[in-house]
């Protein structure tokens, strides 16, 4: 990282030295990239520290991560900041929020040719956002507490209300939003009844993923909304098969996570460099065993064989981003009303 400079000038400072020092200050200011991301990405055990180290070695610049609770919170923060954001890059919005984020006017086109690098099922192409990983939402259960997990969303909703699950709030969390859309995709107009049944099985609704998963691993609740890839962490890092994903016969809702440069970042050449870096093996190889998701551009990335043991959804569910943008507020109000009955 570049050192912070504190300089004082006086009339006695030689003109040539003043010019050199001033140019150093300008170069330092221009050599900084500010990235907004979600808390778990920038945690000590998340990808953030390794991404920072790898990119700073490449760019010889200063990369600073600033965290918000979760992906939805990132977009909410941009709205609060308006045109005065400090972010050059926002990393952690997903495809469910993509159309809404693009329409906000806070993001600039990336002008990169990266779509041919993706190994995401079904591919991914967008002029504004770059994909950095993907995964599938799942109910993760504690095998010490649950012998027979639900094999479908219908079984989860109709199961013993005494056996609880921790979920996330769709207003502030991308997993929470994903769960709501998962139910909406399966049940359509009957989704409010599904929300109501889910509420009977819910111990708590947390603002973000970290809080809910912490309750689960602390033994406060035997099930949590997370990802099919979450058990890989426990198998690789903790060498235990205790926590597993339940495979649902209706299919699993897909999440593709994105990075985009803000209109402020459009004036910073490091922003374009970072977005290009996001799809490189240097970045992608960090993702599987730190963010515990699947790399969006897996070519050149050696996945741990443990990932082959994970649940692979037979059916992938994903709503069109424009449809989500058009209906998100109405559907969240619908979810809130049904969940509080």
Q: In words, what does this structure look like?
A:
The protein contains twelve helices and twelve strands. α2 (48-59) links the parallel β1 and β2. It is α/β, with parallel strands linked by helices. The protein has helices at 15-30, 48-59, 71-81, 95-103, 153-158, 174-187, 191-201, 209-217, 230-237, 269-278, 281-284, 321-339; strands at residues 32-38, 62-68, 89-94, 107-108, 129-142, 165-168, 202-206, 223-227, 243-246, 252-262, 294-295, 316-317. α4 (95-103) crosses α12 (321-339) and α7 (191-201) packs across α12.
Quick rundown:
The protein is an alpha/beta fold.
What structural class do you assign from the helix and strand content? alpha/beta
Q: Can you tell me the overall shape?
A: globular
Mean pLDDT rating: 91
Q: What does the main sheet amount to?
A: 12 strands, mixed
How many separate helices? 12
Order of helices and strands: HEHEHEHEEHEHHEHEHEEHHEEH
Which key terms come to mind for this protein?
341 residues, alpha/beta
SSE arrangement:
Elements lengths: L14 H16 L1 E7 L9 H12 L2 E7 L2 H11 L7 E6 H9 L3 E2 L20 E14 L10 H6 L6 E4 L5 H14 L3 H11 E5 L2 H9 L5 E5 L2 H8 L5 E4 L5 E11 L6 H10 L2 H4 L9 E2 L20 E2 L3 H19 L2
Parallel strand pairs: 1-2, 1-3, 6-7, 6-8, 10-12
Antiparallel strand pairs: 3-10, 4-10, 5-8, 5-9, 5-10, 5-11
Helix pairs in contact: 4-12, 7-12
